[in-house]
Amino acid sequence: MHRYLVINGPNLNALGRRDPAIYGHRTLEDLVAMIQKVAAELGCSAECRQSNHEGEIIDWIQASAAAFDGIVLNPGAYSHYSYAIRDAVADCPLPVIEVHLSNIHAREAFRNRSVIAPVAVGQIAGLGFEGYGLALRYLESYLSKA
Ligand code: DQA
Questions:
Q1: What is the Cα–Cα distance from 116 to 96, expressed in whole angstroms?
Q2: How does the average pLDDT of the chain come out, rounded?
Q3: Alpha carbon of 119 to those of 65, 74, 132: distances in Å?
Q4: Which of 4, 23, 78, 132 is catalytic?
Q5: Secondary structure of 90-120 in the HEC alphabet?
Q6: Is the distance from the beta carbon of residue 102 to the nearest atom of ligand 1 less than 6 Å?
Q7: Can you give the pLDDT at residue 146?
Q8: What are the structural domains, with CATH classification, of the chain?
Q9: Tens digits of per-residue pLDDT, 46-97?
């Protein structure tokens, strides 16, 4: 059974009240419940964490290889400028899938670029909560081919 670490970055704890026209009305708890449901269907485990702190996210990525088989990462706004998280992902031996709830390519110019994307296995953007489930599904297939 594969074990995945799902990391949600800054401000994603505010899901539900934050900019609902973009992020919807469901909360982080709703997202975690959906991820757990998909993980149960897939027969894998998903540990969900959220942090507003860049260094904490980096610590989690650095320690991940000892306890997990893959990472689903929504770095929030750090996606657009955190070379420190990018370096941690680049150094991480696990496959990392970058996920965004919104379509960052259809929003403000500063969101159009992710500095994480070039070092991730791939990116899912704009598919809302479903993107996390698709990322887990993909990791299962990716690891079965490894
Ligand atoms: C986000 C997109 C980022 O630009 C934004 O800063 C977020 C959420 C998303 O999931 O769509 O916090 O990562």
A1: 10
A2: 98
A3: 16, 14, 18
A4: 23
A5: HHCCCCEEEEECCCHHHCCHHHCCCCCHHHC
A6: yes
A7: 78
A8: 3-145 (3.40.50.9100)
A9: 999 999 999 999 999 999 999 999 999 999 999 999 999 999 999 999 999 9
